[in-house]
Amino acid sequence: MPRWLWPLRVCTTLLTAGVWAQPLLAGLFLGGEFGALSVHALLAGLLAPLVLGTVIAAVMVVRPGRFSPVPMVASVLLLIGYLGQFAAGYERNLGVHLPLGVAIVASATVLMCWSWRAGRGARR
């Protein structure tokens, strides 16, 4: 298995776990656990560098002779969406925050699945 895929795999796996936790925390808040909102905000701040790390790892995967630029483009779009999500959350703009959150969870999950499927059969 190619070693250069591991940073992307680690970043996307941690990112996906984190973004899947976010709607759970939001649901707890809506159910009356008001402390969950501060954990939701804290996790959002902790995930921001991880999204940037995912972009860097995706750039390393795309370097000439490796893979197509699709994961790099997807991770850059994920970063842009995440920055918009962060802003919409702090502005309490739920009309943007909720659907963008769904898109981020789906995108991170697809990118993680791609990272684990990529490179299969590269070495035997």
Features:
78% helix; 4 helices; mainly alpha; elongated; 124 residues
Describe this structure in words.
By secondary structure, the chain is mainly α. It has one domain. The protein contains four helices and no strands. Helix 1 runs antiparallel to helix 2 and helix 2 packs antiparallel against helix 3. It is elongated.
Short description:
By secondary structure, the chain is mainly alpha-helical.
| Helix and strand composition category | mainly alpha
Helix/strand order: HHHH
Main sheet properties: none
Span between N and C termini?
8 Å
Count of DSSP-assigned helices: 4
Low-confidence stretches: none
What share of the residues does DSSP label as strand, in percent? under 5%
- Mean pLDDT, nearest integer? 92
Transmembrane segments: 37-62, 69-90, 96-116
Keywords: Membrane, Transmembrane, Transmembrane helix
